[in-house]
Structures are given as structure tokens and as C-alpha cells.
Amino acid sequence: MSGHARRLGDRVRGIGASLRSGSTAPFAPFEWIIAGRYLRARRRGGGVSVVAFFSVLGIALGVATLIIVLSVMNGFRAELLSKIVGINGHVFVTPIDKLFTDYTDLSDRLSKVAGVRAAIPLVEGQAFASSPYGGSGVLVRGVREQDLDGIAAISKNLRGGTLSGFDDGTGVALGRRLAESLGLQAGDQITLSTPKGATTPFGTAPRTKSYTVKAVFEIGMTEFDATFVFMPLAEAQAFFNREGDVSLIEIYLDNADGVAEMREPLEMAAERPVLLTDWRQRNRTFFGALEVERNVMFLILSLIVVVATLNIVSGLILLVRDKSSDIAILRTMGATPGTVMRVFLINGALIGFVGTLAGLLLGIVITLNIKPIQRFLFPSAWDPTVRFLAEIPAQMNATEITVVVITAFLLSLAATLYPSWRAARLDPVQALRYG
């Protein structure tokens, strides 16, 4: 007799002894042994193992897809928030009863409030930018050089030129996509036109003036890179006929989420009636739409996991039918219905565990390498003009990943209950007669 046959005989005798003793604990080793053997392909049971394989594959793909999509949605929101808040500030102070002609003193008072990183006076207006190669509508922002240097999204992302001496001349800084669309680079001339020009007896005359492109920046958000033009504050006041005042004062906080607590101190520091709005109010619709899209995507993709767990149900039902004679023999040897049920519970749990673990690892690996994978497989799939951002972002959230993994595994366990219950109720006499 071969060594394998002897080991198999010893194992069977050990199982029989355990069953006859009637003292086996739940999930005893022999139950795991039987469950493991049932998952391996044998002549008649080959189809069962194929179903088990596709069940594992389905759960793995479902879990991985959920992790990847949720991470991309999280990264998309975080990156957009970083770009929007990074260039637009957190709180916006606008006048109510009189213009901000004392903007220097006012911005100094606001900047001294605890929790305020910077208070920047701005002149803001729309204009039409043109060059010999095209034209485009732009948003012009007049700002002091010291304040522009303090906006890291601009000063640390220059792609050409310099901001040194920005206040000294009539140079402007513009986004890279705007520069490309107009065929411009640092040192070239750009023409800006606005209807808010000088007042004449016949009305307000449009103003057109040419400026030197002093710097080209790239924030990484298409909307900003294609529309923003920064010019010296004094030049913007003259260009938009502001007569020594500013449109608003933009405030950057140490904590972007602390805008509610900062309202009262800022109103007191202003020493006059002012209107305060924050980045949440300005972007409520946009970020609300992102949240709805994220939740809908989660629900839709969860169906992949649900369908995969249904494969476990069909696979275990096939297994119960295929192993009906084995179940009957186990019952005649003394196995209780609970023992039989646990064998098939272990089968389903193993399928769910392996599938969930494989999906977790696959999802993490793809998420960590999402940018090179996208550039290699789908180089033209990410259009920055449509997606707002220059690159596909991804940010994993440990809590969300844990919820996905636990949910997938619990669904797998739930899918095993009905087939396991059917196996436990199998009549051994009928199974031996017709099996």
C-alpha cells in the first residue's frame, strides 16, 4: 500500500472515530479537511470547482473595482478642493455700504486675526484676451506682488518667466493652457480688452491695452489654467477704472474647515459692515454633485459583489447535489446536521475570503499605480479639458476600504446559508438510494 493511501486511510478512520465519539467541537479540523477536499476538482466535481473559481474571480473584481473607484473619487474631490481653495482663498470679504478705498489698512487688520494666514486685496474683472493666434475670455485679477508670491499654487508652479519685479511694470502672469491657446510664452505681448473703460460724455468706452507676458503658471486645474490672468494691483485698478479701491479681500486661513468659527473675529476686525462668504458657499453645488456621483457609483458597483456572491449560492447548490452520497455516508457515520452545515459554510467562507483578499490586494496595487497604468493603457482616455484636472488622482481611505472588505465577506457568508441549510436537511436514505 502506498504512503498516500495509508495517510488517506488514517485520516478517514480518524474522521470516523471523531464522528462516533459524538464529542466533536464546532469547526473541528476534520470539517475543514472535508471542505477543502470538496473545493478541489475531481472527475464529476470539476464543474463545481470552475463555479468556485469564477465566484472568487467575481468577488475579487468587485472588491477591487470598488476600492479603485472610491479612491479615484476621493482623490478627485481632494485634488479639486486643494486647487480651488489654493488659488481662491477660504473667506471672501466684500463691501456693503462703502467701497474698500482703505484696503491696505483693512487687509492689515484682517491678517492679524488669529488663524488667518493672509488677507489679500483684489481687483477682479472679466476681459477678452487676444493675440495674433487667437482669443479667449479671461478672468483678470489684480494683486500685489508680495501677495502673489504668497499664493503657493501660483509661485511654486511657474512654467516660464518670473514674478520678480511684478509690481514694477505692466507685465501679467497667465495660465499655461491660456498661453498655449493664444500661442504665447514669457516675453510675448497679450492684448486685453474690457468694456469697463474710461467714462466719456457718450458713456463708458471700452479699454484695450497690450501687456507683456511676464510669467506662465500651471495650477493643474484646466479651468484655472485656461482663464486666469494676474496683473499688478495698481494696473488692474486703472484698467477697470476702479479709482483706488478693490473688489474684495480674499482671506486664507490656517484651517480651511474652520470658516464658521472665524466669522465673528473677522467681522470685528473689519470695523464696518461687510459681507462674508466662504469657499463652501461658493462651491456647494459643485461638491454636492461630486458627493452624489460618488454615492451612486458605490451603489452601482456594489452590484458586482452581490452578483458574485450569488455565484457562491449556485456553486454550493451544485456541490450539495454532487456530494449528496458523501453527505449521506457522513450522516450514517454519525455526523450531525450541524456538522454537514458547517462543512458547506466553510466552503463558502473560503471562497469569500480568498476573493475578498485578492480583490483587496488588486485594488490597492492598481490604486497606487493608477497614473502609470492609465498613461500606458489609455493614454488619451483622461481629457483634462473635460475632467478639470491634468492627471487622474487617487486617494485611498482606510475606513472605506475596511467597510468594502467586511461587507463583501459578510455577503459571501450570507450567500452560504441557504445551500448549507439544504445540505443539512438532506435525507441520507434518499441520497443513498438515488445518489
From TrEMBL:
<dbReference type="Pfam" id="PF12704">
    <property type="entry name" value="MacB_PCD"/>
</dbReference>
<dbReference type="GO" id="GO:0098797">
    <property type="term" value="C:plasma membrane protein complex"/>
</dbReference>
<feature type="transmembrane region" description="Helical">
    <location>
        <begin position="296"/>
        <end position="320"/>
    </location>
</feature>
<dbReference type="InterPro" id="IPR025857">
    <property type="entry name" value="MacB_PCD"/>
</dbReference>
<dbReference type="InterPro" id="IPR011925">
    <property type="entry name" value="LolCE_TM"/>
</dbReference>
<feature type="transmembrane region" description="Helical">
    <location>
        <begin position="47"/>
        <end position="73"/>
    </location>
</feature>
<feature type="domain" description="MacB-like periplasmic core">
    <location>
        <begin position="53"/>
        <end position="264"/>
    </location>
</feature>
<feature type="transmembrane region" description="Helical">
    <location>
        <begin position="401"/>
        <end position="418"/>
    </location>
</feature>
<comment type="similarity">
    <text>Belongs to the ABC-4 integral membrane protein family. LolC/E subfamily.</text>
</comment>
<keyword id="KW-1003">Cell membrane</keyword>
<keyword id="KW-0472">Membrane</keyword>
<feature type="domain" description="ABC3 transporter permease C-terminal">
    <location>
        <begin position="299"/>
        <end position="428"/>
    </location>
</feature>
<keyword id="KW-1133">Transmembrane helix</keyword>
<dbReference type="InterPro" id="IPR051447">
    <property type="entry name" value="Lipoprotein-release_system"/>
</dbReference>
<dbReference type="GO" id="GO:0044874">
    <property type="term" value="P:lipoprotein localization to outer membrane"/>
</dbReference>
<dbReference type="GO" id="GO:0042953">
    <property type="term" value="P:lipoprotein transport"/>
</dbReference>
<keyword id="KW-0812">Transmembrane</keyword>
<keyword id="KW-0813">Transport</keyword>
<dbReference type="Pfam" id="PF02687">
    <property type="entry name" value="FtsX"/>
</dbReference>
<feature type="transmembrane region" description="Helical">
    <location>
        <begin position="341"/>
        <end position="370"/>
    </location>
</feature>
<protein>
    <submittedName>
        <fullName>ABC transporter permease</fullName>
    </submittedName>
</protein>
<dbReference type="InterPro" id="IPR003838">
    <property type="entry name" value="ABC3_permease_C"/>
</dbReference>
